[in-house]
Amino acid sequence: MFKRSEKSSNRSYLQTKAGPFTPNELVGAIGKDHLGQSDKVTMEWLFEDENGNVVTLYDYKANAWHHPTAKILWSVGGFDKDTAIRFHEWLKEKVKNSMPCRSFDPTWDKIPSGC
User: Fold this and answer.
1) DSSP code, position 100
2) Are 27 and 74 in contact (CB under 8 A)?
3) Cis omega (within 30 of 0) for bond into 20
4) Mean pLDDT in runs of 10 for the chain (115 residues)?
5) How far apart are CA 107 and CA 89, in angstroms?
6) How far apart are CA 56 and CA 39, in angstroms?
7) Contact 98, 26 (CB under 8 A)
8) Residue 60, Cβ neighbours under 10 Å: how many?
């Protein structure tokens, strides 16, 4: 089980890839991204498992923010591959079981209820 985290992900690095998922699917499954944008990442989430192991999910050079319905292979960062692989399995189930978001608005002001 994973939950949102405020821990530091400094010095974490790419462990595996996840998806492909659309930005809409991820917002519907795990909510709005919360780490902000940079020159190479437009959407990013930070999670931790029950043992406090940190993982990040991000769209390295994929420009997901501007392509809400495009299938993207997402980067999963962290400090160990086992946690990243468990996160990917957890994420696949979350996306599979979530309601589809059909009207993604990059301003995040108009996310349909239930997404």
Assistant:
1) P
2) no
3) yes
4) 94 96 95 85 96 97 92 97 98 85 53 50
5) 29
6) 17
7) no
8) 17
